[in-house]
Amino acid sequence: MAEFENKSVFITGAARGQGRAAALAFAKEGAAVAAFDVATKIEYPAYAEGAGEELRSLKAEIEAFGGKCITPVGDVRDDNAVTAAVEAAIAAFGKIDIIFNNAGICAYAPIEEMTDDEWDAMIDINLKGPMNVVRRAVPYMKKAGSGVIINNSSVMGLRGGRRLSHYTASKWGLTGLTKAWAIELAPFGIRVVSIHPTGVNTPMNDGLAAMEGKTPKEIAEASAGNLLPVPWIEPEDVSHLVLFLAGDKARYATGSQFVLDAGLLSV
Ligand SMILES: NC(=O)c1ccc[n+]([C@@H]2O[C@H](COP(=O)([O-])OP(=O)(O)OC[C@H]3O[C@@H](n4cnc5c(N)ncnc54)[C@H](O)[C@@H]3O)[C@@H](O)[C@H]2O)c1
Question: Could you tell me the maximum CA-CA distance found in the chain, to the nearest angstrom?
């Protein structure tokens, strides 16, 4: 039997990048996938082209190999949309066993140039978004007496980033939420962990590169400082960690931070 047969996973930011790779990996291991994404161009950051076509093609790809997938569309900042998506997952699959809080944005801004709107968008999507998802989904996990929540923070949730104060604050905030939720949810059999990847080869990096007038590789090399000689890691490298943490082999992992940084944080 596939490892996640009869399990249901709710993934935010599932159309592209790491969310998409995780959705495919979970579905290949038998999980039913609720793939939530804004799937349209949002006002900030400038790179965020709409991912509507990718969300449709994800569903088609999963169904082509016999998997189950629903694709609720909405913004993680919008409580009504998140509530509707959680309800849609419950209606379709009867439960949510795993949440991958993955939707996020990134952009650069020096301290004195950062606008209120930029600060608010970063904190609202990267930090409040996961809170919105968890507060709506947790009642179902509590009722089931089990669950796993995996938060996609970043190496920037464990260190500082240049021209990234809003991003760094949002990602440290998500590390903090991981700790707080782990404490509150452990009595209900619900585990909560965060992951901390170095630069990942996704459309986010392409978008940052376009805004900076550089190639994605230059962006990755400038911001990474990986010890292993790679500019970035691949979305599938992250999925391997996510699936391990979601599974029973990680049954005693909670409240912890899992680094996948090609050595970056060792310096
Ligand atoms: N790419 C990296 O180098 C890197 C490194 C470490 C951590 N991360 C984090 O990993 C996560 C995924 O990043 P990625 O590289 O796959 O990014 P990506 O831009 O390639 O994909 C992000 C997805 O999230 C969706 N999304 C964006 N805003 C949303 C919103 N408000 N509501 C719902 N969906 C929304 C987008 O449509 C897109 O499909 C993010 O939280 C990011 O901060 C990225």
Answer: 55
- Does ligand 1 have an atom closer than 6 angstroms to the CB of 77? yes
In a domain, 244, yes or no: yes
Asked, as a colleague might, if the bond just before 231 is cis with ω within 30 of 0, I would say no
* Residues found in the chain: 267
Single-letter residue type at 177: L
Question: Can you give the pTM of this predicted structure?
Answer: 0.98
User: What is the span of the domain harbouring residue 207?
Assistant: 8-266
Orientation angle between helical segments 129-144 and 79-93, nearest 10 degrees: 30
Angle (CA) 26 27 28, round 5°: 90
Calculate how far, in angstroms, residue 181's C-alpha sits from the geometric centre of ligand 1. 22
Domain count, the chain: 1
CA nearest 183: which of 254, 132, 127?
A: 254
Q: Would you say residue 1 lies in a domain? A: no
| Res 223 pLDDT > 80 | no
Q: Is 13 in the pocket of ligand 1 (CB under 6 A)?
A: yes
CATH code, 95:
3.40.50.720
Q: What percentage of residues in the chain have a pLDDT greater than 90?
A: 93
